[in-house]
Amino acid sequence: MKKIFAIALGILAAIGGFVDIxxxxxxxxxxxxxxxxxxxxxxxxxxxxxxxAEMCGRVAAVSERxxxxxxxxxxxxxxxLVALISAQFVNLMTIAAEVGxxxxxxxxxxxxxxxxxxxxxxxALALALWLMPFGWIERVFGYTGLALLVFAVAAIKLHPDxxxxxxxxxxxxxxxNLAVYGYYVVGLIGAAMVPYEVYFYSSGAVxxxxxxxxxxxxxxxxxxxxxxxxxxxxxxxxxxxxxxxxEGINPEHLGSVALVAEAPLGxxxxxxALVGMLFAISGAAIDSVFAGAYxxxxxxxxEWGKYRxxxxxxxxxxxxxxxxxxxxxxxxxxxxxxxxxxxxxxFSVVALPLTYVPILLVANDRAYMGRYGNxxxxxxxxxxxxxxxxxVAVAAIPLLIASNMGQG
Amino acid sequence: xxxIDLGLGILDHxxxxxxxxxxxxxxDLELEGIRxxxxxxxxxxxGAPAWRGRGSLGRLAAALARGRTVRIPWEEVKDVHAEVELxxxxxxxxxxxxxxxxxxxxRIPGASL
Lengths: 408, 113
Prior knowledge:
The complex is a heterodimer of chains A (about 400) and B (about 110). By secondary structure, chain A is mainly alpha-helical. Chain A is built from 16 helices and no strands. Chain B is an alpha+beta fold and about 110 residues long. Chain B has a single domain (about 5-105), classed as Roll (SH3 type barrels), CATH 2.30.30. In chain B, strand 6 and strand 7 (about 85) form a beta hairpin. Classes of the chains: A mainly alpha (about 400), B alpha+beta (about 110). The interface between A and B is medium-sized, with 32 and 35 residues.
């Protein structure tokens, strides 16, 4: 009973922790541009994160290795270093986007100046990172992020044409502007499979000392948690499609995203949407900051982890502090966080295969995994997503240019 | 110990000292007896300068990073599984204990949280 309860709580945290600024931006923009037509791309992305996270969690539980341990052991120093540098570049852009997003939402809530809120937001994040034990971070932001379920209510209240919604789950590309369509497909898959989530998830599994008997928890978190988290993405796209597309509004600002919940639900909808966004994006900021420090610690063999006290893993502590500071410095220049978000998602897609491949290799290696290696189902999905990732990685930058970042 | 693949089973693995502290990676291996046809691992090399043996990117990284190479004789290795377990503490083996970073972090209140 106690175990079921713990699993349920873990799933809830995974749902609330699923959405970050990349999902918010790409799902609402895709809904406002193409209505429900791109729901299938979210399904592909969610399937990808489930597959990838489940493998990473299993590798962590069975072989006690987090992602960048496996990357370095499998790819060696040179290729591993390239993977590390590209992952850190993407992480840094993600941190900048999330930190900027936190400040925007704070501004929508308070009306105070953006840069002051940026400083305040970063200080609050640093304090949370410094003081909170690992379990809290996952839980607190995961649960509060559940306020985003208000978008599911909004989606229903907006009375979308459900037959058309259903048709959105079938892939087809008959759009006028194929480059824009393709750009959003790549963005939606990338936003769902954003790599920091997986680095954080696998390192967390090592932090919590998962063992093979925890594989059930891993499967529940990855499969159920992320699948239901995907529902939040559907809700964002459906409600944006129902409200913003007919009005011809392009959500270039997070304010118009909150409007999607306010229109059908009034003041309470607006507040729940903003609070949900604040905690979901703050949680993502913290996860991505830690992900950057985890990667460095694992690649160079430092003491790492939140279960060690701050000075017990000093390089790790300094690494996350520097990552947060650099992210802050990027957005404090005044660059639009939404623009940074789009770049971070597109570049994460380009870098993804470098960390996906070693995990797929290790998950198949009986010397590491014993009888817990990938089974047939695991490999069908694993290889399918390898192909998806390679195609998407190659197409990402050309589509970014051809579609003028989705502007057509 | 069972049969180990040096390339995949030891190189680039985590070093853990007798107290359970992470203290670097197996950055390179020192082999001996290659000419007389009975090669064996003489020592583990760890630390930034040891990256010089890891290709051109390794040489570049070694030139940019600070640090020293520590040579750990193979006799100091207790066990090899996911991690390479050492018989003695990092301090005794003169491995990094991250002292410089620790001094900075310890100046901040709440460092032991």
